[in-house]
Amino acid sequence: KIEKELGCKTYFCDPYCAWQKGTNENSNGLLREFYPKGMDLSEVNINDLNYNLSLMNNRPRKCIQYKTPKEELFGFLP
């Protein structure tokens, strides 16, 4: 149903198979630049979080032809 509604392909990875979802794992690595593993995320300031997410969403990505996620998203919106 998601494929039909959004007009895009979906893919479900097998559990514990990180190699099947490289883009997601790369994004997790980018998050870890700001928030190390084991960090208590409840202590993160919302303004810092929004700033860091803005940095990530404005960073060019190879998987989308070096466009930013923000550019890619707004390219789909009317």
What is the mean pLDDT?
90
Largest sheet: none
Cα separation of the termini: 21 Å
The total tally of domains equals 1
Which radius of gyration do the C-alpha atoms yield? 15 Å
**Secondary structural class:** mainly alpha
Q: What is the ordering of alpha helices and beta strands?
A: HHHH
Low-confidence stretches: none
- Beta-strand percentage range: under 5%
Helix content: 40-55%
Question: Counting H and I runs of at least 4 residues, what is the number of helices?
Answer: 4
Shape: globular
Describe the protein.
One of its GO terms (molecular function) is nucleic acid binding. This is IS30 family transposase. InterPro entries: Integrase_cat-core, RNaseH-like_sf, RNaseH_sf, Transposase-Integrase, Transposase_IS30-like. It comes from Finegoldia magna. Residues 1-77 form the Integrase catalytic domain. The chain contains four helices and no strands. By secondary structure, it is an all-alpha fold. The protein has one domain (2-76). The longest helix is centred in the middle third of the chain and has 13 residues, at 22-34.
